[in-house]
Amino acid sequence: MAQKKYLQAKLTQFLREDRIQLWKPPYTDENKKVGLALKDLAKKYSDKLECCENEVEKIIEEIRCKAIERGTGNENYRTTGIATIEVFLPPRLKKDRKNLLETRLLITGRELRSKIAETFGFQENYIKIVINKKQLQLGKTLEEQGVAHNVKAMVLELKQSEEDVRKNFQLEEEEQNEAELKEKQIQRTKRGLEILAQRAAETVVDPEMTPYLDIANQTGRSIRIPASERKALMLAMGYHEKGRAFLKRKEYGIALPCLLDADKYFCECCRELLDTVDNYAVLQLDIVWCYFRLEQLECLDDAEKKLNLAQKCFKNCYGENHQRLVHIKGNCGKEKVLFLRLYLLQGIRNYHSGNDVEACEYLNKARQLLKELYIDPSKVDNLLQLGFTAQEARLGLRACDGNVDHAATHITNRREELAQIRKEEKEKKRRRLENIRSLKGMGYSTHAAQQALHAASGNLDEALKILLSNPQMWWFNDSNPETDNRQESPSQENIDQLVYMGFDALVAEAALRVFRGNVQLAAQTLAHNGGSLPPDLPLSPEDSLSPPATSPSDSAGTSSASTDEDMETEAVNEILEDIPEHEEDYLDSTLEDEEMIIAEYLSYVENMKSATKKN
Q1: Number of H-type helices and E-type strands within the chain
Q2: Domain ranges of the chain
Q3: Residue spans with biased composition (Low complexity) (predicted)?
Q4: Is residue 216 a contact partner of residue 583, using CB atoms and an 8 Å limit?
Q5: What is the mean pLDDT of residues 144-149?
Q6: Cβ neighbours for 384, distance < 8 A, ≥ 6 positions apart
């Protein structure tokens, strides 16, 4: 397959260089049949490439037919408005994987999915369509989603089958159940990520309270994220981690939609943030790798752009010649894994594009890195006996150029560094919780305390000043019976307490109504504002942000609400299970797949060289 793609790319180059138009005479006659001159052309190019003449002729004929189909489709689109979509089917369909489908662009995504399922024999609910590197949205029209004439559409199957016709109903039913489970898993993934991202957006008032939402730099320390970008970044990172989990299980058809969603959300973040960490660059590699493993690289028109973007991001993040990375970490051995995959994908892309010289250059760079990153299994065993994990052993050995003693010291030091960082983060959270408890003891809700402390950068005294200057923040309550002291009218005893402190009786009563009988808050606010309430403060709880009273129908819904909460917890836990414990998990690879692919493509390149020498 790869060799055929190379020949197609090379022959397309020759045709372009020789300015040959296959859809015109003498290569195509007036009836659009193949002309006799095509055989002579095949002979010329087969001699040039030192390839089988029949094979070259067959590929040139495929290129000619495709050019005629495109021309006919273009004319048809101009006259009728009916567009042609090139549909790429899953790898299991060995033949006829590329097909043309005619459709109007005003139909919805759901209608197109139905049409593709009916035309090519899929079950409609168990396929996803990717166009322009985005999942097709079922509810919008093709035109609204930017789908145009001659666009490429890739079909992803949620169920993995090896034959079109099932020999028994039980097997078909099992695979259908598998597809349903995978679809539900995708929906739970989306729901779980939405919940986590919403929490991230809400924790602008207290970002330290959700450790699983952290993004860290190369040292492992958390990076402060602008509130406006927190939700998009968390969705991007969440989809990326979920996609990587599917990649590890080699479930590429399910991984790709997650990775494309991650790319979409990363694009909503500022350039400066993306240059700080290597997540975005790694994502570009993962997307191209996924297309390659699905044998659909030709559907990714901008593979070169993505690989160049990854290389640029690595340079911005790691510095020229990895200088910044070495300064921070002391080495760059582990990150070489990323560059190996980058060079490998660049080699593959160039080979598929017919650029044999560039392909050879990148593949040899990948092979050289593979040699540098090779790990002696006996050295891994030595580190395992010292109590380290296999992952720690691989990462440590690559960081220390294979030296076992240095690797052991490196792993131990890294453990201690991370333990110190976690200790500092834990202490920071402990102080934050103490400050929250102090403010709650004064009558403020958890939410109000979090918001004030965030605005005051954690300073308790400043947070209290903010709360006193903004008494309306008290209404950001937690729907907690202990903090919800609503009452019809203040008690005379509470009014007398405020009067005894020197406040006017009418003002004291108004303050107690505002703060629902909380004497401490009423006294603090009146004292802070010179014995009166702020003029912009609503004088009744009904005008505030207080939650409505619970109705009987609300109570009736308690059971379903509890069920929804359980489902949300399950969805979130499923996401968290796929977040790796080791912060450098994305750098850990056995490189077994890469080794085989490098050898495969280098053999293709060597065959080309041999043919060239003979020629």
Answers
A1: 24, 5
A2: 1-80, 81-157, 181-332, 490-535
A3: 539-562
A4: yes
A5: 93
A6: 390, 393
CA-CA distance, 263 to 290, in Å (whole number)? 13
3-state SS assignment for residue 209: helix
Residue pair 384/316 in contact (Cβ under 8 Å)? The answer is no
Tokens (6 digits) for 39: 């055989």
Note the pTM of the prediction, 2 decimals: 0.72
Contact assessment for residue 99 and residue 120, using Cβ atoms and an 8 Å cutoff: yes
Nearest to 224 by CA among 240, 241, 203: 203
With 80 as the cut, is the pLDDT of residue 222 above it? no
Q: Residue 389 corresponds to which amino acid?
A: T
What values do phi and psi take at 596, rounded to 5? Answer: -65, -40
For 498-514, the DSSP string reads HHHTT--HHHHHHHHHH
Burial class (CB in 10 A: 0-12, 13-18, 19+), 594: buried
- Measured CA to CA in angstroms, residue 526 lies from 448, 470, 471, 490 at distances of 19, 12, 10, 16
The residue with greater pLDDT, 212 or 116, is 116
Q: Which residues of 409-427 are buried (b: 16+ CB within 10 A; e: fewer)?
A: ebbeebeeeeeeeeeeeee
Please name the fold of domain 181-332: 1.25.40
Q: Reduce the secondary structure of 228-242 to three states and give it as a string.
A: HHHHHHHHHHHHHHH
Is 397 a residue whose pLDDT tops 70?
yes
Cis peptide before 26 (omega within 30 of 0): yes
Mean pLDDT, to the nearest integer, of 410-415?
Answer: 91
Please say if the pLDDT value at position 460 is more than 50: yes
Query: Is the separation of the CB atoms in 204 and 447 below 8 Å?
Result: no
Give the count of alpha carbons within 13 A of 313, CB side only.
24
Q: Taking the C-alpha atoms of 227, 232, 236 and 241 in order, what is their torsion angle to the nearest 10 degrees?
A: 60
- Could you report the per-residue pLDDT of 300-332, keeping only the tens digit for each? 888 889 999 999 988 888 877 777 666 666 667
Give 384's pLDDT tier (boundaries 50, 70, 90): very high
The single residue listed with the structure tokens 């079909």 is 155
pLDDT per residue as tens digits for the range 489-546: 788 888 888 888 888 888 888 888 877 788 887 888 888 778 888 776 655 544 443 3
Per CATH, the architecture of 81-157 is what? Roll (3.10)
CA dihedral 300, 594, 310, 421 (to 10 degrees): 140
- What is the predicted pLDDT for the residue at 181? 63
Comparing 81-157 with 181-332, is the CATH topology the same? no
Give 547 or 276, the one with higher predicted confidence. Answer: 276
Instruction: Give the total residue count for the chain.
Output: 615
- The dihedral sign for the CA sequence 274, 276, 277, 281: positive
d(CA 361, CA 578): 36
pLDDT for the residue 542: 43
Q: Which of 375, 396, 267 is nearest to 592 (CA)?
A: 375
Q: Both tokens of residue 374?
A: 């090779």
How far, in Å, CA of 585 to CA of 64, rounded? Answer: 48
pLDDT level of residue 204 (50, 70, 90 thresholds): very low
Determine the 3-state secondary structure of 549 from DSSP.
Answer: coil
Residue closest to 11 by CA, chosen among 74, 58, 81, 68:
58
pLDDT at 170 over 70: no
Helix (H, G, I), strand (E, B) or coil at 156: strand
